[in-house]
Specification:
The C terminus is likely disordered. Helix content is 19%, strand content 32%. The chain is of the alpha+beta class.
């Protein structure tokens, strides 16, 4: 199966747990996710299945959107509600406008130190493994980008926020750092990822939905339509003859009028067979061949047209 599936991850399991369950449901070994969600977090977890796992390279720098709650009054060792308090609870007296002003300092590009309980590696060892052993975790700051960070409401010690960030940004660290600056401590109480690139929470499915669809033979109904993947690349539909050439990694002529550098090439409406890169004029080379199975027709000259 070559497909994309958006899972609405529940709180509790790790992203790897979700991947393993989908492997069992679909009876497909090749499944990968686009960006880890912490066990506490919920929301959009896009999965690439089969040959489409090769598309992950196009999503390495994808923006992500979140909604969540920051709890002020005490920090935790994991920077979220799953951790142990780092100290006693502090009295909190916050106002919405000053908190919004503080949040504005966490917008734009800046350096951020990842949380000690993270997958960042220190001499080949994940930081969270060292942190669990109460060993020193010395992570270097990395540059991140926050395009939007807005405090929506404030009720007592809890602030509801919305954020849009570049890949690699930790909302847990932002919550922790805000608490440090205020002197009262803070941690991320809850987090929901509402979007990764073009994949939205409104199009996500629970694991139970996927299991039911598989049992009923209706799995296509919960998959992302392939033409909606990578919307920045125009779609071109290949003839049988050109499809055969692409399956064999041959350059082909494609009548693409967009002048785009790269295009998605389809056989029929749903089978994404390649991401092709323009060589010159209408000549494209299949940079990534996603089609599986034997060629559909004998090779023909690259000048063959595409419908």
């Amino acid at each position: 199966m070559n497909a994309v599936l958006i899972i609405a991850k529940p709180s509790g399991p790790t992203s790897h747990d979700v991947v393993n369950r989908v492997r069992r449901i679909l009876r497909e070994r090749s499944v990968g996710h686009l960006g880890t969600l912490d066990p506490l977090a919920t929301g959009v977890l896009p999965l690439l299945i089969g040959n489409l796992t090769r598309l992950a390279q196009f999503y390495a720098a994808s923006e992500k959107s979140y909604e969540g709650v920051i709890r002020f009054g005490f920090a935790t060792d994991t920077y979220d509600a799953d951790g142990e308090p780092s100290g006693p609870s502090q009295p909190v007296s916050l106002s919405l406008d000053p908190l919004r002003k503080l949040a504005s300092h966490f917008q734009g590009r800046f350096e951020q130190i990842p949380p000690p309980f993270s997958a960042k590696k220190i001499q080949g060892v994940p930081a969270y493994k060292l942190a669990r052993r109460h060993q020193e975790v010395a992570l270097k700051p990395v540059q991140v980008e926050v395009k939007e960070f807005e405090i929506i409401t404030l009720e007592g010690e809890r602030a509801v926020f919305r954020a849009q960030v570049a890949s690699g940004t930790y909302m847990r660290t932002i919550a922790h750092d805000m608490g440090q600056q205020l002197g009262c401590g803070a941690h991320l109480e809850s987090l929901c990822r509402t979007a990764v690139a073009e994949f939205q929470l409104t199009n996500a499915h629970s694991l139970e939905d996927v299991e039911r669809a598989m049992e009923k033979g209706e799995i296509e109904g919960v998959l992302v339509h392939p033409r909606e993947i990578l919307p920045q690349f125009p779609c071109v539909t290949a003839t049988e003859e050109v499809t055969a050439l692409i399956r064999n990694g041959r350059a082909v002529n494609l009548p693409d009028l967009s002048r785009a550098r790269q295009v998605k090439v389809f056989h029929g409406q749903r089978e994404l067979i390649a991401i092709a890169t323009r060589v010159a004029g209408t000549l494209f080379h299949p940079k990534i061949v996603l089609a599986s199975g034997p060629a559909l027709a004998a090779p023909v000259p690259p000048s063959s047209a595409v419908r």
